[in-house]
Amino acid sequence: MIISDFTLKKQLASGELYISPIEERQIQPASIYIRLGNTFGIVEDNCDGILQLEKEIQYKIIQTEKYLLLPGQFVLATTMEYIRLPNNMTAFVEGRSSIGRLGLFIQNAGWVDPGFEGEITLELFNANKCAIELKYGRRIGQLVFAQLDKDALNPYRGKYQGQRGVTGSRIYLDTEISR
């Protein structure tokens, strides 16, 4: 079940759901707006031009109030908000329609597991033929929350728990290999 603004406000007030910083106007009828942070990350160029999933990828981290996202460019960004989900709640990261209409794709992996804590790393891609100026504090997307029928047996305690700022892929830490 999607959680309403009434319940979101109640859970925020009780501390069951934690989001900081947050302003009242971010709370929408069935979601909470998330804002763009001031940290961006781009994959460092490597000499062979191949990203290998088994090796750690290096990122160039940039802190700035404005970032110019060029046509066809991919960048990681972070939210201003630090969140902590209870073990009986999940969230979906959704882009804003107004931004999507400009050709800015907000994420590839938009699921936040129960028990997650940290800032949300966003995957941004400019599909437009023009550059897009990204500004710190701009509403960039929204979190839609859903209640689980019971507490998760194994809430999130993974490799991105507690992340702050842009966090690059940690897929190289995966120990399972499918064949």
Keywords:
nucleotide metabolism; dCTP deaminase, dUMP-forming; mainly beta; EC 3.5.4.30; nucleotide-binding; 179 residues; Deoxyuridine 5'-Triphosphate Nucleotidohydrolase, Chain A; dUTPase_trimeric; 2 helices; two-stranded antiparallel ribbon; 40% strand; ten-stranded antiparallel sheet; single chain
State the gist of this model.
This protein has helices at residues 5-14, 97-100; strands at residues 18-20, 27-28, 31-43, 59-63, 66-69, 74-84, 89-95, 104-105, 111-112, 117-126, 132-135, 139-147. The protein is mainly beta. It is globular.
Strand content: 35-45%
Helix content: under 10%
Number of helices: 2
* Fold-level CATH name: Deoxyuridine 5'-Triphosphate Nucleotidohydrolase, Chain A
In CATH terms, the superfamily is Deoxyuridine triphosphatase (dUTPase)
Envelope shape:
globular
Order of helices and strands: HEEEEEEEHEEEEE
Distance between the termini: 36 Å
Note the main sheet: 10 strands, antiparallel
Radius of gyration: 17 Å
Number of strands: 12
Q: Structural class from helices and strands? A: mainly beta
What oligomeric state best describes the polypeptide chains here? single chain
